[in-house]
Specification:
Blueprint (H helix, E strand, L loop, with lengths): L3 H7 L2 E3 L1 H10 L3 E4 L3 H6 L6 E2 L3 E4 L2 E4 L3 H8 L5 E5 L4 H12 L4 E5 L2 H7 L9 H4 L10
Parallel strand pairs: 1-7, 2-3, 2-6, 6-7
Antiparallel strand pairs: 4-5
Length: about 140
């Protein structure tokens, strides 16, 4: 049975890192980084907005209960957003929540920040391993 949430999930637009970079460079899109503050501080896309979608706690990862409120404090529902995490899972969930909340112009970046780094888009002198976070859902390169 199709639920409203499954319909929203099907409407999440996922793009690769090169398409994301093109949107950020030329189309007025903003980069919403939904990784933890620790991941963001390790390395991030220039001018990114960091609003964690999940928090690491002793009990495991918990959804940020203030996520939508924090996004609405810095973005309007008309803003164009490229949403990314480390590998694409959290950002997909964040896009689903944003679409349900009425944000119309959100794109999930496939592969997340790790793919951004792997494709040479980070433009940083640090070794890739220092910029990325190890993820059990993504094989190391």
């Amino acid at each position: 049975m199709e639920t409203p949430e499954s319909h929203i999930q099907e409407s999440v637009s996922t793009i690769d890192v090169h398409a994301a970079k093109n949107l950020l460079d030329s189309s007025g899109f903003r980069y919403l980084d939904v990784r933890t503050v620790e991941e963001y501080n390790k390395s991030h896309v220039e001018n990114a907005i960091n609003i964690p979608y999940l928090f690491k706690t002793p009990e495991g990862r918990l959804k940020n209960p203030e996520f939508l409120d924090q996004v609405s404090a810095v973005c309007t529902k008309d803003d164009q957003l490229v949403v990314a995490c480390n590998s694409g899972g959290r950002s997909f969930m964040a896009c689903t929540d944003l679409l349900q909340a009425g944000y119309a112009n959100v794109k999930n970046m496939d592969g997340g920040y790790s793919a951004w780094v792997d494709n040479g888009l980070a433009g940083n002198d640090k070794p890739a391993e220092e910029m990325k976070t190890v993820c059990k859902f993504r094989p190391s390169v």
